[in-house]
Amino acid sequence: MPSITPKSILPRRRTGIVDLLAASALVLSACSPPSTLDSSIPVAATADYPTSHIHGMHVDAETGKVLLATHDGLYDVSTKPATRIGPDIDLMGFTVATDGTLYASGHPGPGVDMPNPVGLVESIDGGRTWTPLSRTGQSDFHALAATHEGIIGFDGQLVTNQGGSSWELAEDQVSAYHLAATTDGHVALATTESGLMRSSDHGNSWDRVPGAPLLMLTAVSGNQAAGITPDGTLYSSSDGGLQWQKRPAATKDVAAMDLVFKDGKPQIWTASPTGVKVSRDMGRTFTGLEPRKDQE
Fold this sequence. Notes:
Elements: E1 44-45, E2 54-59, E3 66-70, E4 73-76, E5 83-85, E6 89-96, E7 102-108, E8 120-123, E9 131-134, E10 143-146, E11 151-154, E12 158-161, E13 167-169, E14 178-181, E15 188-192, E16 195-199, E17 207-208, E18 217-221, E19 224-228, E20 233-237, E21 245-250, E22 256-262, E23 265-272, E24 275-279, E25 287-288
Antiparallel strand pairs: 1-5, 2-3, 3-4, 4-5, 6-7, 7-8, 8-9, 10-11, 11-12, 12-13, 14-15, 15-16, 16-17, 18-19, 19-20, 20-21, 22-23, 23-24, 24-25
């Protein structure tokens, strides 16, 4: 079994996927939260692909939009060149709810008037503006996941949130490197340095998944799940993460992944420092993303 090296506490960015599956610490700051986290920075065209570290990914199966949460903010990479959306925030944690609301955490970039860390923030306009919900100036959630009932976060402690502002400690404390959940149910997965953990109650209680591979990242949609190991081996599950099957395809240096349904069929998406790939046959093969040249 490959070894896992803890990532450093309170990094401005993750140092790459070789620093895997360990806990971030709770960050304390004396900043006072503003009423709204807005940005006067216009949406800006950039290079064909963001060059900063990638921390999260969301694919809209209906529109084909592919969002990457990075060290330098949120990017739409489904167009060419890629487009940065909204302010320069180091989006360490990132997740999307069923209704399309974006949730994030992290640190403001240079010149951005936000508390550090930003706590939990939300965007209802696709990432152009962000509104604080809780823990501003206090929590840097390096892992976030949205279930049907609310948000699960890890900032050194595993906590759950059902209303945006009130957090409760999970009954079982799991040192999560990465969190994933199905937004149409209660199942959540947490990758840890000692193995895969699974919750069926919105992240409150957790059980180790016997026989599961040592996964670095996972994605869940309905009963389908996908995961990838530190060495790039891909696995899939058809029972919500209880049993896992090795897939033929492998992909290197994956920093984020997503699993979505298109026309009733699951698709596995991965993002690496060099580009985005998609498998439409549950990990048998991968093809590269071909961005649209016309921007919205």
